[in-house]
Amino acid sequence: MLSVRLPIPRFVSAGEVFSGTGSIGVLRALPAARVAVLASTSLLNDPVAGDKLRAAVRAQDVRFITAPKGEPSLEALQPVIAEITEFGPDWIVAAGGGSVLDGAKIAWAFYEQPDLDPEQAARPFTLPRLRGRARLVAVPTTSGSGSEVSSAALFAVHPHHAKRPMVSHELLPDVVILDPALTMGVPSAVRIAAGFDALAHAVEGYASRFDNPLVDLLAEQATRTLLRELPRSIADPEDMDARLSVMNAAMMAGWVQNLKVPGAGHAIAHQLAELGIGHGAATGFMLVPALRYNCQDETVRLKYDRLAVAVGLADANGLIDEITQMRRDLAVPNPMTGKRISDRDRLLAAALEDVCARANPRLLDRRALAEILDDATCAA
Question: Please, which residues bridge with residue 73 across strands?
Fold first, then answer.
C-alpha cells in the first residue's frame, strides 16, 4: 500500500470480500496449516451457526477460542493473546460482532509484535508491519460496526474505560465473509443497535470534514438501504435477503467511517463506554442530536439536504424525522436509563480530543458537545 501524505481522496479496503448465503464455506479455501478461530460465546454455542462455522474451517490444526464478553480491553484480551501465541496460527478467523472483530485485531497485533507498547499502539499509523506470522479473516455477525473493512480497532486499557483507537491500514483484514445465515441466532435488540451504528457511520460520515466524493456515494446507498431494510429484517427474521442487504449496507457504512470518519455523535458515544453502554446503542442514541446541532450551519444543512434527496426524502429535517421515527418503530430503548455521568466535564474534554470531534463538519468546543449531550438526554 502506498504511503501518501497528500490530501487526496483514496479508497482502501480489505483484501477480498465474499458476500451471500453460504459464503462461510470460503474458509475451506484458506491456505492454512493452523487456524485460530476467535468467536463469541453465543456464536460457538449456536446449534446452527456454530456448526456451520466449525464445518467450514479446514486445516491441519484448528483451535476455537472464546472471545471475552463486552467491549475489548487489553486486560480482558491477555488470555486470548497468550493462547494465540502458544498455538502459533498462520491464519486467525474472527467471527462475531464488532467487539469480537476489534478484539481479534488487537490480539493479532500483539501476537505479531509481542513487545508492542500500548501507548505506541494508540498513536495513529505507527503500528509496525503485520502478517509476518498470520493473516486475518473477518466474519461479522451483527451487521453494524464496519470493523470488517476498518483500519481501526477500538479498545480500553481496562474494562469500561473510555475507548482508544488503534489505527493502521495494517489492521484491514485479508478476507471478509458476509454470510447472513450466521446472524440467525443474534437477538433482535443486538441487530437493531448494530444497524443504528451503521446508520451513524453513513450519516455522520457523509458531512465529515474529510472530503471524498466517491465515498459519499457509498454513504447515500448505505443510508437508503438501512432505512428500508433494517426494519424489514427485524419484522421478518426469516427474510435472508433483507439480512444480507443490511450486512452489505453496514460494510458500505464501514467504508464511510474508515475513509471519512464520523463526527460529534461518535466522539461522545466513545466516552459513554465508561458507563457500560455498548457502542451501537451509544452511537444510535447520539445520531439525531448530532445531526440537529450540525444542521444549524447552513453549509452543513445543504449537504444533508442532498443526502436526504438521494435517499428519497425532502430535506435534512425529513431525514432527521425518518431516523427518529425508525427508532420509535423499532422501540429502541434509551441507553442512559439508570446511568449517571460522574464527571461530565472530564467526559466532554475527552470527547473533544476524540478524532471524530476533529472530523465533525461544524467546529466543536465543550459547550457545543454539552448542547448535543443535553439534547440526547432530554429527547430520549
Answer: 156
b vs e for 247-266, b when ≥16 Cβ sit within 10 Å of the residue's Cβ? Answer: bbbbbbbbbbbbbbbbbbbb
Q: Is the pTM of this model over 0.90?
A: yes
Query: In terms of DSSP bridges, do strands 34-39 and 164-167 run parallel, antiparallel, or are they unpaired?
Result: unpaired
Which residues does 164 contact at the CB level (< 8 Å), separation at least 6? Answer: 122, 154, 155, 156, 157
Rounded to whole angstroms, how far apart are CA atoms 9 and 17?
Answer: 22
Do the Cβ atoms of 202 and 222 come closer than 8 Å?
A: yes
Distance of CA 88 to the CA centre of its chain: 27
Q: Phi-psi region for residue 97, left (φ > 0), alpha (ψ -120 to 50) or beta? A: beta
CA distance 214 to 13: 14
And the C-alpha cell for 186?
A: 443474534
Q: What digits encode the pLDDT tens for the residues 123-178?
A: 888 899 999 999 999 999 998 889 999 998 987 766 656 667 789 999 999 999 99
Beta bridge partners of 152: 167
